[in-house]
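In line with agreed milestones, the collection of sequences with tokenised folds has grown. A representative record is reproduced below.
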Amino acid sequence: MSYRNLDIYKIAFELFPKVHKASFLLPKYELYELGSQLRRSSDSVITNIVEGYGRSVYKNEYYRFLVFSHASNDETINHLEKIIILYPEFSAEFEILKQQYDFLGGKINNYKKWVKENWNENKL
């Protein structure tokens, strides 16, 4: 088993290049402000899943990194919401991404609950 088999990883990894590409639609002065924050938070969703899985022998560590991933997902949604308000000409594309991150957030939350209730360190 690998983190690559997790639905939350697959979804986050699929969304990352979409967000990265979409962030370059923003005006030049936003590329290193809101655009950069969006790219970093989107990357953090994936990175925390991977790093947490690497520590999954320790249930509490694994859970902690899933919490970080969920928080980065929420941050990504917040950046997308700000872009939708500030740049209505791009709202259609960013709204789709926001909906996909909303879905991912639910999946991460459910997986966090499952890990908290079912992860057995002794079976690894």
DSSP finds five helices and no strands in the chain. Residues 40 and 121 are 31 Å apart (CA to CA). Helices lie at 7-23, 28-31, 34-54, 59-86, 91-118.
